[in-house]
Specification:
Structural class: mainly alpha
Number of strands: 0
Number of helices: 42
Shape: globular
Helix content: over 70%
Length: 725
């Protein structure tokens, strides 16, 4: 009867709800048909972009249909609403744990617990994430014990409690907790017949008790019973890595990924392992394989991951194309992918295309971020700072917006604000950007090396630029006379491509601490280190330089000649031969011949290019020297010396505008480069540019170690400013 009345009055609308959101509620809450609700939710997101319930239900539909990564964004949006913080935040935390985003899970649970201090489900999720991250063990233990205070019979809390105690090395307490957990398991009060958590805890307990053979046997049994369970896989991988069996760890990850090819936690872990061991082609192939997965959502994530890798490796046009493929496949219309595409266009220098994409964005803060990025890239940091300020007002807890605000602040010379916003970004999500590394560099340039170490030591593990940050951390620790964490040393010791750079970083630190003799002593003490391996050329260069600084350049030359006898076709070693010959005062013709032979073998050998450039400049061949310096800077993005030297030559050749542009570009990336700031200030002063901008550069040079020349220039500019005032 009711249906008939509705049909008459609503012109045949039937019994279903006419409001699409009400219909979506029915599909999800009553029929549990999340797939059926997905199309409705896509339309609702476009119509009601600021409705937190729409975002919550859209995220839930994506996750329920296997698109966990894509579902994270709408859940984040929904959790910003106080009304939807609890349901959306809990769903977000669970998904973050599944995807291995432990810090995000901890962060959202903390927000929930700030509003609802005794929510047991949030405490359990935070404890679980804390244990899995292996960086928040004490707080995870506290959360588990708080649950047991609130609900003494809640046996689920025993799992993170036991795991935390084991990881903290509190074996006796862990044994008692494990006994209680096993008793609960036998009684089936956990409802976890064949519990993977219990199995992993038993294996880990044996390892912590000093019985690796029993632990290995138990882990292998767990892997047979639960081969695809993330907790078991992750704990087993950690165990085998810690016991010198990375090959077995890789086998475990490959097996798990083969069984679950859509699991990006396993794919990401294997990808990182392949990159760290110098197998870049295999790592990229792993990402490309993900682009061919059958599920459109999984292929979308695969193309997005490939695009991010291409950005990281400097293939910006390819990255933009990969993001285009991701957009075409994306079943969710994810704003994150649209934003990633626009960002790739920015780094590819396609600014107008990026702005056109920004105009079509449904998320206003994304639009502002792209517009601000374009302003930064076009050399207008003042405008960028204004735009990013608007983005921060709209979304104060956005780590990316805070990061770019800091970058813009650095470029205009507001370093106090840069420090504040870098820290803000890190507090929101230290894994979202390399804010921690940029802040550490800024602090180091300011002479605050302990502060730099503190920044570098904030939640290491999955952050961008982790390898580069680790090398800086090793150098600063050695300089401070502090031991490096065993896990950090182990990571670099097992990496063929990074081990030489790590040894060189430690040597630099020791030399700064106590002098070159200490560096030589350290380098010679590396008994298992092969200085004849071209992958370790960084370390051999450190040894050559340390010997020279200690007054023994001949010893450095001997080491280089030994390396060349072992590897006579290694371009890096010929470049080092040239350096060693120059240090012992050999005839310039011999030095030049070594460098030229290096470039015959590798035309992009940056050390040889820069050294030959210096020789040409000293001989008065400025044009030739300039071309070589430019090639050196292109071959090594970290070579600031060549950029500055090239700018000096440009100015001498009357190409002052190019020189200023080159130095300004260097300062955009390295705002604390005192030599570049001083050189640019002097060029500006000579042509009568605006005094205030020149004074800012002089102040910057003086602040970051420009010495007496910077102080004198600043004093002169201040005097001129006072006179004109």
């Amino acid at each position: 009867m009711l249906c008939a009345w509705i049909a008459l009055t609503l012109s045949g609308a039937g019994c279903e709800a006419r409001d699409p959101l009400e219909r979506a509620r029915q599909l999800q809450d009553e029929q549990h048909d999340f797939a059926g609700s997905l199309e409705l939710m896509r339309g609702l997101v476009a119509e009601r972009p600021d409705d937190p319930e729409v975002e919550y239900r859209y995220g839930g539909a994506l996750i329920a249909t296997g698109s966990e990564s894509l579902g994270m964004w709408p859940l984040r949006q929904a959790s910003e609403s106080p009304e939807w913080l609890l349901p959306a935040g809990l769903a977000l935390a669970r998904t973050a744990i599944v995807l291995g985003s432990w810090d995000e899970a901890i962060s959202v649970c903390t927000r929930i617990l700030d509003a609802h201090p005794d929510r047991v489900d949030a405490l359990l999720l935070r404890a679980d994430a804390g244990v899995r991250s292996r960086r928040h063990l004490e707080s995870a233990l506290a959360d588990a014990e708080r649950v047991l205070e609130l609900e003494p019979d809640n046996q689920q809390a025993l799992v993170p409690k036991t795991a935390a105690l084991l990881a903290l090395g509190r074996a006796d307490e862990a044994a008692a907790a494990l006994d209680e957990l096993e008793a609960a398991h036998r009684d089936d009060s956990l409802g976890l017949h064949g519990s993977p958590a219990l199995c992993a805890a038993q294996a880990t307990f044996r390892a912590e008790k000093g019985d690796p053979e029993a632990a290995e046997e138990r882990f292998e049994d767990c892997l047979k019973r639960f081969p695809n369970e993330p907790l078991v896989v992750n704990e087993a991988v950690s165990f085998f890595d810690a016991h010198g069996r990375p090959d077995r760890s890789e086998e475990i990850l490959r097996g798990a990924l083969e069984a679950m090819p859509d699991n990006f936690e396993y794919r990401s872990a294997l990808f990182s392992r392949l990159r760290a061991t110098g197998r870049a082609e295999d790592a990229e192939a792993l990402l490309r394989a993900a682009t061919e997965l059958a599920a459109p959502a999984s292929a979308t994530v695969g193309w997005s991951a490939l695009a991010l890798y291409e950005i990281e490796t400097g293939r910006f046009d390819e990255a933009a194309a990969s993001f285009e493929r991701a957009r075409a496949l994306d079943p969710s219309g994810s704003p994150d992918i649209v934003f990633g595409y626009a960002d790739a266009l920015v780094v590819a220098g396609r600014y107008d295309d990026a702005l056109r994409v920004a105009d079509s964005m449904s998320v206003p803060v994304h639009r502002l971020l792209v517009q601000g990025r374009v302003a930064l890239a076009r050399g207008n940091p003042k405008k960028a700072l204004e735009i990013f300020g608007q983005a921060n007002e709209m979304w104060p807890n956005n780590a990316v917006a805070r990061y770019y605000t800091a970058v813009a602040a650095e470029q205009v010379g507001n370093f106090a604000r840069a420090v504040e916003d870098y820290r803000y970004s890190m507090r929101i999500d230290v894994n979202a950007t390399d804010a921690y590394l940029r802040l550490a560099r800024l602090q180091r340039a300011s002479g605050r090396e302990q502060a730099a170490l503190t920044s570098l030591e904030m939640q290491p593990g999955k952050r961008p630029s982790e390898d580069e940050a680790g090398l800086l951390r090793l150098e600063l620790l050695a300089k401070a006379g502090r031991p490096a964490p065993p896990a950090l040393l182990q990571y670099y010791a097992t990496s063929e491509t990074l081990r030489g750079a790590a040894v060189a970083a430690l040597a630099r630190g020791f030399e700064q601490q106590t002098g070159p003799e200490k560096a030589v002593e350290f380098l010679l003490a590396q008994q298992d280190f092969d200085y004849t391996d071209p992958d370790h050329a960084d370390a051999l260069r450190a040894l050559v330089d340390a010997y020279a600084a200690a007054g023994k350049p001949v010893e450095g030359r001997k080491r280089v000649e030994a390396a060349l006898r072992a590897k006579p076709e290694a371009a890096a070693f010929y470049a080092l031969r040239g350096r060693a010959l120059a240090l012992v005062g050999a005839p310039p013709a011999e030095v030049r011949a070594a460098y030229e032979r290096s470039l015959e073998l590798d035309a992009e050998q940056s050390l040889a290019l820069a050294a030959l450039a210096r020789m040409e400049a000293e001989a008065g061949a400025s044009e030739t020297a300039l071309a070589l310096y430019q090639r050196a800077a292109s071959a090594d993005p970290h070579d600031r010396d060549s950029v500055r030297a090239a700018a000096v030559l440009m100015a001498q050749l009357g190409r002052r505008e190019e020189a200023e542009a080159s130095l300004a570009a260097l300062l955009r990336e390295h705002p604390y480069d005192a030599e570049a700031a001083l050189a640019l200030a002097e060029l500006r002063m000579e042509r009568g540019a605006g005094v205030e901008g020149t004074r800012e550069l002089a102040r910057r040079a003086a602040t970051f170690g420009g010495g007496s020349a910077a102080e004198a220039l600043l004093k002169r500019l201040d005097s001129e400013h006072s006179s004109s005032g």
